[in-house]
């Protein structure tokens, strides 16, 4: 009997908690015009370089920022930007170029979305074998986060293709050997049989990793063999 009465007492309390939670989330979802959002967007626009355009942005839900100021994330034509407002004014910014993006994932919940991005430590077009930095950003507006994710995927695919072409061009350049010209006008080649074997192995590895096609591999192989 006591347990039954206790259960009846708890039920209204749980209902009240659920009501307050839903009220907070509903208010948060409709709070895109709060005074902090225009300030964050003002900071964001202040760091855009000439020719750079803002493509999508999302702000962190209040419920996920109880111990800190809310975070704004954005996708521009050239990079990913994260802005965290300071407690006493100002802001802290983290950004990376799209060519440094290694991977992007998204997790969408009922009220918010999380986005996870990995960044290459290398700053050039070549694919880096080094470990990557990971950003874990939780509790953002779903619509804006989904737009940022789609843009990240599009840029990732574009730069993957550029890296593939870059590595293929470098391999083709190496497979032809290094041509030198001495003072008498006679050309000398720096390509040796050991170099050719090494380059052929490198080409096979690229083929296995699907960075080049079978026909491209056979073309490189024929060029190397003809140079013996």
Blueprint (SSEs and pairs):
Elements: H1 2-29, H2 36-46, E1 54-59, E2 71-76, E3 79-85, E4 91-97, E5 101-108, E6 113-119, E7 133-140, H3 142-175, E8 179-181, E9 187-189, H4 193-208, H5 214-226
Antiparallel strand pairs: 1-2, 2-3, 3-4, 5-6, 6-7, 8-9
Helix pairs in contact: 3-4, 4-5
Short description:
The protein is of the alpha+beta class. The protein contains 5 helices and 9 strands. Helices cover 45% and strands 24% of the residues.
Would you mind describing this structure in some detail?
The protein has 228 residues and is α+β, with helices and mostly antiparallel strands. The protein folds into 2 domains: 7-161, PH-domain like (Roll), CATH 2.30.29; 176-180 and 188-226, no CATH class. The chain is built from 5 helices and 9 strands; from the N terminus they run H-H-E-E-E-E-E-E-E-H-E-E-H-H. It has helices at 2-29, 36-46, 142-175, 193-208, 214-226; strands at 54-59, 71-76, 79-85, 91-97, 101-108, 113-119, 133-140, 179-181, 187-189. A 4-stranded antiparallel sheet has the order 1-2-3-4, with helices on both faces. The longest helix is centred in the last third of the chain and has 34 residues, at 142-175. The model is unreliable at 19-27, 29-33 and 177-190 (pLDDT under 50).
